[in-house]
Please model this.
Amino acid sequence: GITVYLRRFTLPSEYMFHIRNANPGDMRALLDVLTVFPESKTTAEILQRSDELGLAVRDRAHFDALPAARDLGLVEDGANRITAKGKALAQIDRVNPTIFADIVHLLHYTLWNPTTPAVNCFSFSYRTVCKELWNGGSSSSLNRRELAAKVEATANGQFKRSDISLSQKSIGGALDWLYELRPEVFSGDGEQFVRRSFCPPESLVLAIEHRYRECELDYGANLLLSGTHREALCQACVLELDGLDRVLDYAIAQFSYLEKGIGGGWGQYITLQGPVEIEGFVQLR
Model:
Protein backbone atom coordinates (compact mmCIF):
# COMPACT_ATOMS: atom_id res chain seq x y z
CA GLY A 1 0.00 0.00 0.00
CA ILE A 2 2.83 2.43 0.79
CA THR A 3 4.50 1.83 -2.58
CA VAL A 4 1.27 2.60 -4.46
CA TYR A 5 0.83 5.78 -2.44
CA LEU A 6 4.33 7.02 -3.30
CA ARG A 7 3.96 6.24 -6.97
CA ARG A 8 0.71 8.10 -7.12
CA PHE A 9 1.81 11.25 -5.36
CA THR A 10 5.52 11.57 -6.19
CA LEU A 11 6.13 13.49 -9.40
CA PRO A 12 8.16 11.41 -11.89
CA SER A 13 11.60 12.81 -12.59
CA GLU A 14 10.84 13.43 -16.26
CA TYR A 15 7.96 15.78 -15.42
CA MET A 16 10.07 18.83 -14.54
CA PHE A 17 8.04 22.05 -14.67
CA HIS A 18 10.59 24.36 -13.01
CA ILE A 19 12.08 26.91 -15.44
CA ARG A 20 15.80 27.20 -14.87
CA ASN A 21 16.94 30.60 -13.62
CA ALA A 22 19.51 30.97 -16.37
CA ASN A 23 20.60 34.58 -16.35
CA PRO A 24 20.71 35.86 -19.98
CA GLY A 25 24.12 37.44 -19.43
CA ASP A 26 25.44 34.11 -18.14
CA MET A 27 24.04 32.35 -21.23
CA ARG A 28 25.83 34.85 -23.46
CA ALA A 29 29.09 34.30 -21.57
CA LEU A 30 28.72 30.52 -21.79
CA LEU A 31 28.21 30.50 -25.56
CA ASP A 32 31.09 32.94 -26.09
CA VAL A 33 33.46 30.83 -23.98
CA LEU A 34 32.54 27.58 -25.72
CA THR A 35 32.97 29.26 -29.11
CA VAL A 36 36.44 30.60 -28.29
CA PHE A 37 37.53 27.71 -26.04
CA PRO A 38 35.65 24.62 -27.30
CA GLU A 39 37.84 22.32 -25.20
CA SER A 40 36.42 23.67 -21.91
CA LYS A 41 35.13 20.55 -20.17
CA THR A 42 34.05 21.56 -16.68
CA THR A 43 32.01 24.37 -15.18
CA ALA A 44 35.14 25.56 -13.35
CA GLU A 45 37.02 25.81 -16.65
CA ILE A 46 34.16 27.72 -18.27
CA LEU A 47 34.06 30.19 -15.38
CA GLN A 48 37.84 30.61 -15.55
CA ARG A 49 37.73 31.22 -19.30
CA SER A 50 34.91 33.74 -18.87
CA ASP A 51 37.12 35.67 -16.44
CA GLU A 52 39.96 35.60 -18.99
CA LEU A 53 37.62 37.01 -21.64
CA GLY A 54 36.33 39.67 -19.24
CA LEU A 55 32.81 38.23 -19.29
CA ALA A 56 30.76 38.74 -16.13
CA VAL A 57 28.95 35.69 -14.73
CA ARG A 58 26.30 36.49 -12.15
CA ASP A 59 25.39 33.00 -10.91
CA ARG A 60 28.74 31.34 -10.31
CA ALA A 61 27.44 28.99 -7.61
CA HIS A 62 24.80 27.20 -9.68
CA PHE A 63 25.51 28.42 -13.24
CA ASP A 64 22.09 27.36 -14.49
CA ALA A 65 23.00 28.72 -17.92
CA LEU A 66 24.84 25.46 -18.68
CA PRO A 67 21.99 22.96 -18.04
CA ALA A 68 19.57 25.43 -19.65
CA ALA A 69 21.75 25.55 -22.78
CA ARG A 70 21.71 21.74 -22.86
CA ASP A 71 17.91 21.76 -22.52
CA LEU A 72 17.61 24.14 -25.48
CA GLY A 73 19.98 22.21 -27.73
CA LEU A 74 22.71 24.86 -27.65
CA VAL A 75 25.24 22.61 -25.87
CA GLU A 76 25.52 18.84 -26.28
CA ASP A 77 24.14 16.60 -23.55
CA GLY A 78 26.82 14.94 -21.47
CA ALA A 79 29.55 17.19 -22.85
CA ASN A 80 30.17 20.92 -22.77
CA ARG A 81 30.52 21.05 -26.55
CA ILE A 82 28.64 23.85 -28.29
CA THR A 83 26.24 22.78 -31.07
CA ALA A 84 25.84 24.39 -34.49
CA LYS A 85 22.72 26.12 -33.18
CA GLY A 86 24.67 27.41 -30.18
CA LYS A 87 27.48 28.74 -32.40
CA ALA A 88 24.96 30.49 -34.63
CA LEU A 89 23.28 32.09 -31.62
CA ALA A 90 26.64 33.29 -30.27
CA GLN A 91 27.42 34.83 -33.66
CA ILE A 92 24.00 36.47 -33.85
CA ASP A 93 24.62 37.96 -30.41
CA ARG A 94 27.84 39.54 -31.66
CA VAL A 95 26.31 40.90 -34.86
CA ASN A 96 22.81 41.81 -33.71
CA PRO A 97 22.50 41.39 -29.93
CA THR A 98 18.96 42.80 -29.75
CA ILE A 99 17.47 39.60 -31.25
CA PHE A 100 19.46 37.19 -29.04
CA ALA A 101 16.90 37.15 -26.23
CA ASP A 102 13.99 36.86 -28.66
CA ILE A 103 15.44 33.70 -30.20
CA VAL A 104 16.12 32.11 -26.80
CA HIS A 105 12.60 33.12 -25.75
CA LEU A 106 11.14 31.29 -28.76
CA LEU A 107 13.32 28.23 -28.07
CA HIS A 108 11.88 28.09 -24.54
CA TYR A 109 8.36 28.68 -25.82
CA THR A 110 8.29 26.07 -28.60
CA LEU A 111 10.19 23.11 -27.13
CA TRP A 112 7.37 21.25 -25.38
CA ASN A 113 5.47 18.83 -27.63
CA PRO A 114 2.20 17.13 -26.60
CA THR A 115 3.26 13.95 -28.42
CA THR A 116 5.97 13.48 -25.75
CA PRO A 117 4.25 15.22 -22.84
CA ALA A 118 6.70 14.18 -20.10
CA VAL A 119 9.67 15.79 -21.86
CA ASN A 120 10.64 19.49 -21.67
CA CYS A 121 7.80 20.37 -19.30
CA PHE A 122 9.67 23.54 -18.33
CA SER A 123 8.76 24.72 -21.82
CA PHE A 124 5.08 24.10 -21.07
CA SER A 125 5.48 26.27 -17.95
CA TYR A 126 7.28 28.97 -19.95
CA ARG A 127 4.59 29.01 -22.62
CA THR A 128 1.84 29.20 -20.00
CA VAL A 129 3.53 32.17 -18.30
CA CYS A 130 3.55 34.02 -21.63
CA LYS A 131 -0.06 33.13 -22.42
CA GLU A 132 -1.27 34.22 -18.99
CA LEU A 133 0.50 37.57 -19.32
CA TRP A 134 -0.72 38.05 -22.90
CA ASN A 135 -4.32 37.15 -22.03
CA GLY A 136 -4.21 39.69 -19.20
CA GLY A 137 -3.73 42.41 -21.80
CA SER A 138 -1.44 45.38 -21.94
CA SER A 139 -0.69 47.29 -18.76
CA SER A 140 -1.71 44.45 -16.46
CA SER A 141 0.30 44.44 -13.24
CA LEU A 142 2.78 41.64 -12.68
CA ASN A 143 1.82 39.52 -9.67
CA ARG A 144 4.39 36.74 -9.43
CA ARG A 145 2.60 34.69 -6.79
CA GLU A 146 -0.70 34.79 -8.68
CA LEU A 147 1.07 34.00 -11.96
CA ALA A 148 2.81 30.96 -10.46
CA ALA A 149 -0.52 29.71 -9.08
CA LYS A 150 -2.18 30.04 -12.50
CA VAL A 151 0.65 28.19 -14.24
CA GLU A 152 0.50 25.45 -11.59
CA ALA A 153 -3.28 25.08 -12.02
CA THR A 154 -2.97 24.95 -15.82
CA ALA A 155 -0.25 22.30 -15.62
CA ASN A 156 -2.22 20.17 -13.16
CA GLY A 157 -5.24 20.39 -15.45
CA GLN A 158 -3.33 19.66 -18.65
CA PHE A 159 -1.44 16.69 -17.23
CA LYS A 160 -4.33 15.42 -15.06
CA ARG A 161 -2.16 15.56 -11.95
CA SER A 162 -2.52 17.12 -8.52
CA ASP A 163 1.14 16.96 -7.48
CA ILE A 164 2.67 19.70 -9.65
CA SER A 165 3.87 22.53 -7.45
CA LEU A 166 5.31 25.78 -8.81
CA SER A 167 6.70 28.70 -6.84
CA GLN A 168 7.61 32.23 -7.84
CA LYS A 169 11.16 30.98 -8.36
CA SER A 170 9.86 28.22 -10.65
CA ILE A 171 8.57 30.80 -13.13
CA GLY A 172 11.35 33.34 -12.48
CA GLY A 173 13.40 31.85 -15.30
CA ALA A 174 10.71 32.92 -17.78
CA LEU A 175 10.65 36.47 -16.45
CA ASP A 176 14.45 36.66 -16.78
CA TRP A 177 14.11 36.29 -20.55
CA LEU A 178 10.93 38.31 -20.94
CA TYR A 179 12.66 41.27 -19.31
CA GLU A 180 15.38 41.01 -21.97
CA LEU A 181 13.08 41.23 -24.99
CA ARG A 182 13.41 44.24 -27.29
CA PRO A 183 11.02 45.91 -27.92
CA GLU A 184 10.17 45.55 -24.25
CA VAL A 185 7.20 43.71 -22.78
CA PHE A 186 7.43 45.34 -19.35
CA SER A 187 7.15 49.08 -19.01
CA GLY A 188 8.28 51.60 -16.44
CA ASP A 189 9.51 49.89 -13.30
CA GLY A 190 9.19 46.45 -14.88
CA GLU A 191 5.93 45.65 -13.07
CA GLN A 192 3.52 46.53 -15.89
CA PHE A 193 3.15 44.03 -18.73
CA VAL A 194 2.53 45.39 -22.22
CA ARG A 195 2.07 43.55 -25.50
CA ARG A 196 4.58 44.66 -28.12
CA SER A 197 3.62 46.49 -31.31
CA PHE A 198 6.59 44.93 -33.12
CA CYS A 199 9.02 42.03 -32.74
CA PRO A 200 12.02 40.76 -34.73
CA PRO A 201 10.96 38.90 -37.91
CA GLU A 202 13.15 36.01 -36.73
CA SER A 203 10.77 35.53 -33.80
CA LEU A 204 7.76 35.37 -36.06
CA VAL A 205 9.15 32.74 -38.45
CA LEU A 206 10.09 30.56 -35.46
CA ALA A 207 6.55 31.01 -34.11
CA ILE A 208 5.06 30.18 -37.53
CA GLU A 209 7.08 26.96 -37.74
CA HIS A 210 5.90 26.04 -34.26
CA ARG A 211 2.31 26.66 -35.34
CA TYR A 212 2.84 24.33 -38.31
CA ARG A 213 4.02 21.61 -35.90
CA GLU A 214 1.10 22.20 -33.55
CA CYS A 215 -1.39 21.92 -36.42
CA GLU A 216 0.53 19.00 -38.01
CA LEU A 217 0.86 20.89 -41.30
CA ASP A 218 3.44 19.92 -43.92
CA TYR A 219 5.77 22.56 -45.34
CA GLY A 220 4.12 24.10 -48.39
CA ALA A 221 0.63 23.89 -46.90
CA ASN A 222 -1.32 27.08 -46.36
CA LEU A 223 -1.95 28.37 -42.84
CA LEU A 224 -5.08 30.49 -42.75
CA LEU A 225 -4.54 33.69 -40.80
CA SER A 226 -7.73 33.20 -38.82
CA GLY A 227 -8.34 34.63 -35.40
CA THR A 228 -7.11 31.47 -33.66
CA HIS A 229 -3.84 31.31 -35.59
CA ARG A 230 -3.26 35.06 -35.29
CA GLU A 231 -3.71 34.87 -31.54
CA ALA A 232 -1.36 31.88 -31.23
CA LEU A 233 1.39 33.65 -33.20
CA CYS A 234 0.97 36.86 -31.21
CA GLN A 235 1.08 34.99 -27.88
CA ALA A 236 4.35 33.32 -28.91
CA CYS A 237 5.89 36.63 -29.96
CA VAL A 238 4.28 38.59 -27.07
CA LEU A 239 2.85 40.79 -29.80
CA GLU A 240 -0.24 42.96 -30.05
CA LEU A 241 -2.73 41.58 -32.58
CA ASP A 242 -2.57 44.79 -34.61
CA GLY A 243 1.21 44.41 -34.97
CA LEU A 244 1.21 41.01 -36.69
CA ASP A 245 0.74 42.13 -40.31
CA ARG A 246 3.57 44.67 -40.10
CA VAL A 247 6.02 42.09 -38.72
CA LEU A 248 4.80 39.56 -41.28
CA ASP A 249 5.61 41.94 -44.14
CA TYR A 250 9.17 42.33 -42.82
CA ALA A 251 9.51 38.55 -42.42
CA ILE A 252 8.32 37.84 -45.96
CA ALA A 253 10.80 40.38 -47.35
CA GLN A 254 13.61 38.81 -45.31
CA PHE A 255 12.95 35.06 -45.63
CA SER A 256 12.47 33.49 -49.06
CA TYR A 257 10.77 30.41 -47.58
CA LEU A 258 7.80 32.43 -46.25
CA GLU A 259 4.97 33.66 -48.47
CA LYS A 260 1.49 35.05 -48.05
CA GLY A 261 -1.53 35.21 -50.27
CA ILE A 262 -5.30 35.51 -50.50
CA GLY A 263 -7.31 32.61 -51.88
CA GLY A 264 -10.89 32.45 -53.02
CA GLY A 265 -12.91 31.45 -49.99
CA TRP A 266 -9.70 31.10 -48.00
CA GLY A 267 -9.05 34.63 -46.94
CA GLN A 268 -5.49 35.64 -46.09
CA TYR A 269 -3.01 32.80 -45.57
CA ILE A 270 0.72 32.27 -45.13
CA THR A 271 2.86 29.44 -46.48
CA LEU A 272 6.07 28.15 -44.95
CA GLN A 273 7.98 26.33 -47.68
CA GLY A 274 10.73 24.78 -45.56
CA PRO A 275 12.31 24.47 -42.11
CA VAL A 276 13.44 27.50 -40.14
CA GLU A 277 17.10 27.19 -39.12
CA ILE A 278 18.67 29.55 -36.61
CA GLU A 279 21.94 29.06 -38.49
CA GLY A 280 20.28 30.76 -41.47
CA PHE A 281 19.67 33.94 -39.47
CA VAL A 282 23.43 34.56 -39.34
CA GLN A 283 23.77 34.79 -43.12
CA LEU A 284 21.19 37.55 -43.29
CA ARG A 285 23.04 39.86 -40.91
About this structure: The beta strands are 140-141, 186-187, 192-193, 222-224, 258-263, 267-272. The chain is about 50% helix and 5% strand.
